[in-house]
Write a structure and sequence with these properties.
The protein has 99 residues and is α+β, with helices and mostly antiparallel strands. It has two helices and four strands, in the order βαββαβ. A four-stranded antiparallel β-sheet has the order 2-3-1-4, with helices on one face. A hairpin with a 5-residue loop joins β2 and β3. The chain starts with 22 loop residues before the first strand and ends with a strand.
Length: 99
């Protein structure tokens, strides 16, 4: 029996998304609790979603107070926009996880 050839690209890199654009898309960003975290994240989001209203950002501190989670629901226009935003957020030095 022959083994099927594995894809040359990572799975999902060219795949269609199940999302229909435009849509409201929540991003959960977790980072170290620092005074400038929310402002830094807002700056990154505005690079890719300039219409995002920072007043809608939800913030929660961890029980230890060491980390903060931010929930930001952006009006996503495309998969490419979300991918670029995700890459920018995950590469930010204050960010630990983006869901």
């Amino acid at each position: 029996m022959m083994t099927p050839e594995l894809p040359k690209e990572p799975v999902g890199s060219d795949a269609e998304t199940l999302l229909e654009f435009p849509c409201d898309f929540p991003l959960k960003i977790m980072g170290l609790a620092q005074d400038n975290l929310a402002q830094e994240i807002l700056g990154v989001i505005h690079q890719f979603a300039p219409d995002y209203n920072g007043k809608n950002m939800e913030m929660r501190a961890s029980s230890s107070g060491k980390y903060v989670s931010l929930t930001c629901t952006v009006n996503a226009q495309s998969k490419a926009q979300l991918d670029d935003l995700y890459r920018a957020l995950t590469s930010h030095p204050l960010v630990k996880v983006v869901l």
